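Reopening this one. Same input as before:
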Amino acid sequence: MIEATLCFPLRDRDTETDPEVLLIEKRRGLGEGWYNGPGGKLEPGETPRECAIRETREEVGLEVTDLEKAGELTFLLDGEDHTVCHVYRTRSFDGRPTSSEEAHPEWVSAADVPYDQMWADDRLWLPGVLEGKTVVGEFRFEGGTPLDDAEFVGHDLEWDVSF
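Same output, byte for byte:
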């Protein structure tokens, strides 16, 4: 099973009530061409928090701090555990996001997240995470390897969990 992270840096906008979230357009690998938060697979001996910090630095050049765990998502493929994803958010970071071979970063209003260009499950849990909620979820996919070729067939969510 894969253990991975996602990190969602947030910032307030001067003229709008909705914060902005930093999303990346994946340039290669799983989910290529889709949007999500920076993140990736844990390396041996690395904690999920360390992974989220490292991946955000590598993918977009931001140094994130004060990460808050916002979710733990389990993805099943054809009834088997495929990935556990630890989700973080933060408003503390240094630097300016820059493109890399892996990702192109974009600040997007939380009200205008492009869910139609994201994984099918993202629209179910990400709005709550961006509003400050916590979530544990299980998402079921069938009929595809890699996962981004599979069909999303079901889910279970539990909100306002403690980590």
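So the earlier flakiness isn't reproducible anymore. For the record, The CA atoms of residues 4 and 41 lie 4 Å apart.
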